[in-house]
Amino acid sequence: LMAKAVGADVGLTNNGGIRTTLVMAEGATTRNITVGDVYTIAPFGNLIYAYEVTYPELLSILNFAVGSGSGMGLRMSGINAYYGNDGVVTAITLLDGTLVYQNGTWADGYETKTIKVATNEYVATSDTPFKAWNDTAKLYSNTLADNESMIELLTAEGEANGGKLAVDSAAHLIQGAYTGAGALAPETPPATEPETPPATEPETPPATEPEAPLDTPPQTGDVSMILWVAAALFSASGIAVLKRKEEE
Fold first, then answer.
1. Which has the higher per-residue pLDDT, 71 or 146?
2. pLDDT (tens digit, 9 = 90+) per residue, 111-133?
3. CA nearest 72: which of 21, 113, 15, 26?
4. Alpha carbon 217 to chain centroid distance?
5. Contacts for 11 with CB less than 8 Å, ≥ 6 apart
6. 226 pLDDT above the threshold of 50
7. Helix (H), strand (E), coil (C) string for 26-79
8. Whole-prediction pTM value?
9. How far apart are the C-alpha atoms of 127 and 237, rounded to whole Å?
10. Sheet containing 48-54: order of strands
11. Are the CB atoms for 82 and 174 separated by under 8 Å?
């Protein structure tokens, strides 16, 4: 109703801004709503604050609503938002099912489009994303009282529809993943095969003769050579001795 009063697309309010619940009698399918009921629901006469914001700015509002703003118990109509257990909005859809945003990706240029959002004076002037826009051109209306506007709208709708009022009972802040048509899946880079280095033949070290240990006993041939050398030296020294004796 706040959104309708100021020509907005989306309406948000806090739990505390709804002061009572209208209950139907057991077995009843209809219930009359009186002017007194409206003043019981909205007794404060809060002004309706209306803003024209970009869709990314709307996303910041929705993240506040399901995150730190959940303590306010913000309720919404006019658009659908899906969020996870971490309190982060993962998808936004219009009421006709059009997917606007999913997992960081905007559809059809929605990141530059604008949308009109309405809330009550309490939310608009509290520590919320709205507060930063109150002195900017984004705020386009804040002069209508919520309860008086509701009475006017409900009266006109009832007169136009034989006393019947449309009731939106659907959830619009939805916990869970979006699974509808036209999912904007994040781009996944193509899989690449890991490069395999070229095969190389292992280097074979050059063959070397094993070194004989120092304490290896001489072989048979080695003994013969040693004896021959010793005999030659002995003969040579004997000749040298004989020559010295002759000279004497």
1. 146
2. 999 999 999 999 999 999 999 99
3. 15
4. 81
5. 1, 2, 3, 4, 76, 77, 78, 117, 118, 119
6. no
7. CCCCCCCCCHHHHHHHCCCCCEEEEEEEEHHHHHHHHHHHHCHHHHHCCEEECC
8. 0.72
9. 121
10. 75-77, 10-13, 114-120, 48-54, 139-141
11. yes
